[in-house]
Amino acid sequence: MRFRRRQGATVIRRRPLLALRALPEFARGLGRQAAAVRYWPLWALLLAAAAGPAPAGAADFTIKMATLSPDGSPWDGFFETMGRDWEKGTDGRVSLTIYPGGVAGDEPDILRKMKIGQYHAAALSVSGLADISRDFTVFEIPLFFRSEREMFHVLRELTPGLRTTLDEKGFVLLGWGYVGQVHFFTNERARTVEEMQELRIFTWAGDQAMTNWWRQGGFKPVALAATDIVTGLQTGMIDALAVPPIYAMSVQFFKQAKYFADIPLIPMMGAIVVTKRAWNRVSEADRGVLVDGGQRAENRIFETIPDIEQATIKLMGGQGLEVVPIVGTEVEDDWKRIANSFADDMRGKVVPAAIFDRATAVRDAYRQRQEAEAAASAAADGSR
Fold first, then answer.
1. pLDDT (average), residues 306-331
2. Are residues 269 and 152 in contact, defined by beta-carbon separation less than 8 angstroms?
3. According to the 3-state scheme, what is the secondary structure of the chain?
4. Which domains does the chain have, with CATH numbers?
5. pTM here?
6. For residue 190, what are the CA distances in angstroms to 119, 212, 247, 256?
7. Which residue, 7, 22, 167, 258, is most buried by CB atoms nearer than 10 A?
8. What would the pLDDT profile of 141-189 be if each residue is shown by its tens digit?
């Protein structure tokens, strides 16, 4: 597989899912920073197993995949390897070209261009997926999951239905992606809900519904363009923002927002999708190769990102970031209460009631099984 890089049209064989809705502006205005490349050695060590030699040979059909993730972020290796798997598994009949960092536009632009055939595939965040179907907003409920294991279980159970939803909208799901857990980064120390409510929190300009949602929760949202975040932090227009640690490091937000609220708010999920129009250009046998490659990429992401996230937090801590403990302290219940209030308000308004209830039922059944297994194990230990 021949990964190449061009200026202007910028064709790069790289990059993955999910990022925030305004990540293209991040990538253009902030993202393509040397800082992202500076930390590549750490990520490369953690991702080395994902790399492999590129096979030679021309491709009959080159799938053009757009994504918002900035250059130098950890997902490069996952997607490069997926492309190599495709080309090798199809004997060169299918190859992959990746357009990263928002060069194809933001996610509404990407989806529009996919409809006209300019791009064939995309690695989309939940925000982009929600433009296809509101069912994907189920992954934006705060503090809905207790652990990543619980989250992955619910995702697996919801996958058949979400796959069908995408199919009905003209897309094929190749694999899920994961950026990590969204946390608050603040320029003032904030541990309690009340302290966080005193801070001016960045929200995406144009997303009035989310701005109103924050305000109704007693917070102080400030809507800004993504390119204004650093200036906003420097000038005091905003005091806080919520992003995954890996992304905060890649664009150096932690240099201004030096406090890390150690409570995971939501998982930043995403997916690799291809249009059915492009899918139909691939033979039945080669489609299996694409699905297998997407699934392997998903497995690598789920297995590796949690470790990268923890390494990232430690690295930022060594450069001045202060971790503010919340989980396991006396203030955690207050965060849970306001999150539950937010969740109740989201049902039917932000998240369709059917998918909300389905996810809740799956999650609660999982918790009951885990608790029953723990109780049985404790009883067995006590009888010895």
1. 95
2. no
3. CCCCCCCCCCCCCCCCCCCCCCHHHHHHHHHCCHHHHHCHHHHHHHHHHHCCCCCCCCCCEEEEEEECCCCCCCCHHHHHHHHHHHHHHCCCCEEEEEECCCCCCCHHHHHHHHHCCCCCEEEEEHHHHHHHCHHHHHHHCCCCCCCHHHHHHHHHHHHHHHHHHHHHCCEEEEEEEEEEEEEEEECCCCCCHHHHHCCEEEEECCCHHHHHHHHHCCCEEEEECHHHHHHHHHHCCCCEEEECHHHHHHCCHHHCCCEEEECCCEEEEEEEEEEHHHHCCCCHHHHHHHHHHHHHHHHHHHHHHHHHHHHHHHHHHCCCCEEEECCCCCCHHHHHHHHHHHHHHHECCCECHHHHHHHHHHHHHHHHHHHHHHHHHHHHHHCC
4. 23-346 (3.40.190.170)
5. 0.80
6. 43, 22, 21, 15
7. 22
8. 999 999 999 999 999 999 999 999 999 999 999 999 999 999 999 999 9
Q: How far is CA 189 from the centre of its chain?
A: 26
Res 106 pLDDT > 60: yes
CA 344 to chain centre: 23
Query: Count of alpha carbons within 13 Å of 128, Cβ hemisphere only?
Result: 36
How far is the C-alpha of 298 from the C-alpha of 216, rounded, in Å?
A: 36
Cβ proximity of 270 and 233 under 8 Å: no
